[in-house]
Write the structure tokens for this entry.
Amino acid sequence: MAILVTGGAGYIGSVTVELLRARAERVVILDDLARGHRAAVPADMPFYQGRVGDSELVARIAREHDLESCIHFAALADVGESVTEPARYFDNNVRQGIVFLDSLLQAGVRRMVFSSTCATYGEPQQIPISEDHPQQPTNPYGWSKLFMERIMESYDRAYGLKFVALRYFNACGATRELGEQHEPETHLMPNVLAAAQGRLSAVSVFGNDYPTPDGTPIRDYIHVADLGAAHILALRHLRAGGESERINLGNGQGYSVLEVIETARQVTGRPIELKLEPPRPGDPSRLVADAQKARTLLGWRPAYPDLAAIIQSDWNWRLRHPEGYVSERKD
Ligand SMILES: NC(=O)c1ccc[n+]([C@@H]2O[C@H](COP(=O)([O-])OP(=O)(O)OC[C@H]3O[C@@H](n4cnc5c(N)ncnc54)[C@H](O)[C@@H]3O)[C@@H](O)[C@H]2O)c1
């Protein structure tokens, strides 16, 4: 029996695959490589290049691998891009997502760990944000993930699909061989470290007049290996016959943009210039998780709660792989 990992050539997916492999789980990867890297997938692992909305391909994978569950990372995940290209986001994340769910059910697969996001909450009404916080996304990306959560709830009631929607806050950090590389990169941590490497002349800071102690937005940073570990625990929950759940994944601690930059200066010992830019519309001032449910329900304990340790892991990866993955973006 195998686990189908969609988006397994991407950042969080590839790290989760590494952890699954270390536990001797059988894994099959489906990724269209629109944003992922073939080099992030072990050469000897079953890999299908294609889209989750390709029902014939998913049926073939199911025939060839006896699937028992799915971890569904595959999605487009750039908030700004989703505002300018909503049709593409709804097509990729929702239309293809529905076709994919139907293909899984056809193949008898009824366990799904789903990558959701804190972007489904929208502007926070209270901090920290718990799972029962109202969900009112402020961009098409957040809506695309919320639609998928709602669709899976209906599929649970009607067809017995059991799912865990993991709502991640800000993923960051690296393992020894796997790190974050997007093209273009919109996430803070890789850009801060690209500036430390001298690959960027300065890091853009979008606004310094937020109602926070230093005026820059506060986010909850969570190490990618801690996210990966939570997926394995969520799968264990489903395999044990657990009910569908929605669970936040964060450290429960917030750091401002300026704190991240200053910590990165200390970790790397390099000067990091910053460039002040206008605030981005819809950027909340503070996003911090209440991640208690992950601890009590899944027994999850983040191994990297410390910001400096997270940055150090990413910096080590960049020192070992100064050019990153050598693969081309295909779209
Ligand atoms: N990075 C974060 O901080 C963060 C936060 C919250 C949620 N998420 C979610 O986690 C998941 C993984 O994020 P990531 O940062 O690893 O992104 P990523 O872009 O590195 O990985 C996504 C992978 O999915 C693939 N993909 C996209 N659409 C596909 C399709 N239709 N068919 C097949 N493959 C497809 C891409 O090629 C890529 O390899 C995404 O669903 C994202 O929305 C990420």
Summary: The CA atoms of residues 9 and 40 lie 6 Å apart. Residues 6-7, 9-13, 30-36, 51-53, 73-77, 92, 96, 115, 117, 168, 170-171 surround nicotinamide-adenine-dinucleotide (CB under 6 Å). The two ends are 33 Å apart (CA to CA).
